[in-house]
Amino acid sequence: MPATDNGNAVRGRSLWDDARDRLLANKAAVASMILLAAVAIACFLGPLVLPHPYDAVYRDFVKVPASLEAYPREDQIAPALESLLRRGRVTVDTVEVSGERVTARISSSRDIDPRLVRYLDRSDLFRNGEVADLAADGKSATVTAEVRRLHFFFGTDSNGRDLMTRTLIAGRVSLTIGLLATLVAISIGVIYGSVSGYLGGRVDLLMMRVVDVLYSLPFIFFVILLVVFFGRNFILMFIAVGAVEWLDMARIVRGQTLSLKRQEFVQAAEALGVDNAGVLKRHIIPNTLGPVVIYMTLLVPKVILLESFLSFLGLGVQEPLTSWGVLISEGSRNVQGAAWMLIFPSIFLTSTLFALNFIGDGLRDALDPKDR
């Protein structure tokens, strides 16, 4: 470590420090990191604070549009109450709405059964229904209930489930599958490619022919086989995607290893008696991290798109769990009358993909400034 004239040590700058400064100077990459962090926090923490479970069904609010106002609307309360009370075979004379309470005067040609308020409590619009002021002859009474106010900021789907909660839960699934599948692909690809490139010769030839054979097989073939053997579940997704996407990583790392193993520091390690595993662990793999990190940021959006495509085909995650691909698939079938079912999941998916791609471009420029 160099020292100044007064004897104080000055800390030198590493290449990683320079790369970090170049990355932070890239406004698009920094904005993308902030956006990606916001999306991730919203997806993982948002469902914990939202009032609606992702699998809760509101039968009275099927395909309601996105709105900042609470449901039901004022003009919907009286007709809904009358419809529910008619199931109890009574006549609704008057309905008054006062704030969060609604009062109805009812009459009937026969005795009124107080249990008719169960129709109100079973609905999604009212709660705490009571029968009061029952007449002596049992032919008239007053029914009171509380209006249940619900917010659906992204609207609801075709089953009456809150789309905002489901979009955030879908983000959890898509981001988790993207990260896990990428880690699987990176782990397999780095180890396979570095071993193949470092050992060389017939071993390299055989290992690369295996990669070529796997390249020739269609991706969907692997997925169908995994579905047959393991069934449709969450774990299957990142195993299926990661088990195929490592092929590109293996070729990239192999090319880097072929150039690194001719470097002086690798030859010096071999001359000192370091075994092959030690050379790979200490010298080859650490020096391939730059391209690996860049490829990883570009692989995550690719994996998310693949998962969305598989979910669109019905081979992905299953209900009631969901992903952005599942929501987009459902939204595309209802785009004519319920466009919000397609718009909100698409916004989250596209913004995440753009952010990851901009981060990948920023890392590429930061780690390889000569390529700018």
Automatic annotation (TrEMBL):
Its main location: membrane. CDD domains: TM_PBP2. Keywords: Cell inner membrane, Cell membrane, Membrane, Peptide transport, Protein transport, Transmembrane, Transmembrane helix, Transport. Pfam families: BPD_transp_1, OppC_N. Belongs to the binding-protein-dependent transport system permease family. OppBC subfamily. Residues 171-360 form the ABC transmembrane type-1 domain. It is a multi-pass membrane protein. GO terms for biological process: peptide transport; protein transport; transmembrane transport. The chain crosses the membrane at residues 28-50, 173-199, 219-244, 292-317, 337-360. InterPro entries: BP-dependent_transpt_permease, MetI-like, MetI-like_sf, OppC_N. GO terms for cellular component: plasma membrane. This is Oligopeptide transport system permease protein OppC. It is found in: Cell inner membrane; Cell membrane.
